[in-house]
Amino acid sequence: MTTTVTILEPQKPEVIEVGYANGQVTRNSIVAVDVQRRDTSFTMPTAAVPFVWNVVQTDTGGIYNPTTGVTTIPFTGLYTFNFAFSMSAGGGTDILYAFAQTSTDNGISWSTSTYSGRRIVISTQGQQILMASTNKFTQGTQLRFVFFSTDPTSTIASVNVPQSTAVVPASRLLITGISE
Questions:
Q1: CA-CA distance, 173 to 82, in Å (whole number)?
Q2: What's the mean pLDDT in 151-155?
Q3: Domain assignment present for 74
Q4: Residue 91 belongs to what domain range?
């Protein structure tokens, strides 16, 4: 009887070049975005409208527009989006709807991905909601995120951390992207 043993060599990690050229993110780059909504109380919309995070903490490459809430993909690659909300149902049980819309014609028309929708039941005060999604996007694609509630009294609110000057934002969006 013969036994075959295969010895695997360790893989060399891939080196990723991070850089800018003429103020633009270059190929083989990484982007990072951290935007927040820090309202003491913000009533969630009851209709599908784009959500805007109004405090920009980090935005390498300037891909997020804090006025419109639109993110423009700087290069084709893999992007991860992490969302967090501190939400309270106003009048009991509520449902939060969340989905992404994309545009490839500079925002003239927007389409909603079949698989981007989420339906989240909110039944307590001060509930933390976390969502994440990873997708491949092509350069120039624009994204916006839509969140709305079935209860006109549901709110999101920033929370002060006890015995600290830290504030947990009402909502936060983190984006990381790496080129192909």
A1: 6
A2: 78
A3: yes
A4: 20-179
β-pair partners for 32: 176
Closest CA to 141 of 98, 77, 80: 77
Closest CA to 98 of 112, 108, 88, 109: 112
Q: How does DSSP assign 8-68, residue by residue?
A: PPPPPPPP----EETTEEPSS-EEEEEEEE--S-EEPPSS--B----EEEEETTS-B-TTT
CA 62/CA 5 separation, integer angstroms: 51
Instruction: Read off the DSSP letter of residue 71.
Output: E
31 within 8 A of 145, measured Cβ to Cβ: no
pLDDT tens-digit map of 89-142: 666 666 777 778 888 888 888 887 655 566 666 655 667 777 888 888 889 999
Entry pTM: 0.72
Cα 109 to Cα 50: distance, rounded to the nearest angstrom? 13
Q: For residue 78, what is the domain's CATH number? A: 2.60.120.40
Residue 23 pLDDT: 55
